[in-house]
Amino acid sequence: MTLEDTLNELLVKLFKDLLEIESRSLITEEFSDITCNDMHIIEAVGIEEPRNMKTVASLMSVTTGTLTKAIESLSEKGYVTRKRSTEDKRVVMIRLTDRGRRAYYHHEQFHRQMIKNIAAEMNQQEAEVLIYALAKLVDYFQLNYYDTSEEEEFVDWSKIPSEESR
Fold this sequence. Notes:
mainly alpha
């Protein structure tokens, strides 16, 4: 198997497994009415001060229009509250409810436990190599698949030059 085949196989498996494991771990009986994507929106809303829709949409790399539908659903289910800004009525502020905070901490705990378990399997040198490799992957995807000039939206994949044309 070539290096490219091995990297492709590992990245595809890792992505698939992470999504599956996260889904099974996060969507418990208490949170059976939401999706993993909803959990990530809850994470982006955060537990600090209320955030406006534009900020949350930017953190999620989606448009505010796309986020609006998800926030409406989370509001109906009791995870978030929405309130118009007193300074600018066009701005909608989002805050987690107590139920939303429980979901936030549940998601955070999953990630903390996952990292703790991964780190326990490595020595210092292996951890440093993994961090370096993951940072390179993040840089690659940020440079090649995000249009950082426009609200960090995803680039249209059909416009990305193929290996042959580079």
